[in-house]
Amino acid sequence: MKVSFCTSGFKEWPLEAVLQWAAPLGFDGVELWMGHIEKFQEDNGPLDHLLKQLDAYQLQVPVISGYTTFSGGFSGEKNLRQEYETMRRLLDAARQLRCPAVRTFAGHISSRKASPEQWGQLVQDIKHVMKMAEQYEVDVAVEIHYDTFVDNAESALQLLREVGHPRLKLVFDSANLNVEQIDPVAVLPSLFPYVKHVHLKNYKWDHANRYKSIPVPIMEGDVDNEKLLLEFKRLGYGGFVSLEYFGESKEENIKRSLMQYLKFCAAA
């Protein structure tokens, strides 16, 4: 396994500052938030300039993170044409940066609240997205996330089955499953064939008030990430795990999480 971190927690930082901060820490890659990429293009021009910087830091880009949900076709919260255009930009940036996948969400409400009509519309929208992905030769990875249609193993497998495209993959996030009180180790074997990328973080979780939950390094919270990583190792995962933290303590949580991850790798 290789280790990266998500720049989506550093939205207030210029991308150059994020890369300079991370460079001495020893990451293999960086998961880029699309907003950072777009700002870089505004300030510096074509993405080949960014690719040169990433090569100089010896950082691969395993995933570009977008915030598309494809909800607009049935609910009107977002303009569906704008979402398709955003996805096209994501795929184009991925192709230019030698990145194999882009991240999306699927829907904007819990799978328990989604009507059959909403689900059917989402499947059709994702099928359209996959035609775009085929043209760019880039995978689309749906993140397993609470408050979306893909918030558990069953709904994830249903979407994969109904869309039926080999480039549709998953971003596996153990902490998001914990919000739904689902054991990530128990569901990983069924999802593993479709896992393109892994988000790794941890919390001391308050299920009564999720926004009072406290982010902590990966081996110190409610999720047994050591057990999870051992299961990934047993299954033969060779991709990236991305440390994903937000808020005022993000730098410290990432640094301590990286130390814990490297210690785990050395012991395992």
**What is the helix/strand order?**
EHEHHEHHEHEHEHHEEEHEH
Strand share of the residues?
15-25%
The main sheet comes to: 8 strands, parallel, barrel
CATH topology: TIM Barrel
Q: What's the total count of β strands?
A: 10
How many structural domains are formed by the residues? 1
Helix content: 40-55%
What does the average pLDDT come to? 94
Look at the structure and give the CATH class.
Alpha Beta
Q: Can you tell me the overall shape?
A: globular
CATH superfamily annotation: Divalent-metal-dependent TIM barrel enzymes
Q: What structural category characterises the helix and strand content?
A: alpha/beta
Radius of gyration: 18 Å
Distinct helical segment count: 11
Oligomerization category of the chains in this entry: single chain
Q: Which strands sit side by side, in order, in the main sheet?
A: 1-2-3-4-5-6-7-10
Kindly report how far apart the N and C termini lie: 12 Å
Query: Regions with pLDDT < 50 over 5+ consecutive residues?
Result: none
CATH architecture: Alpha-Beta Barrel
Short recap of the structure:
47% of the residues lie in helices and 16% in strands. With 268 residues, the protein is α/β, with parallel strands linked by helices. The protein has one domain: Alpha-Beta Barrel (TIM Barrel), CATH 3.20.20.150.
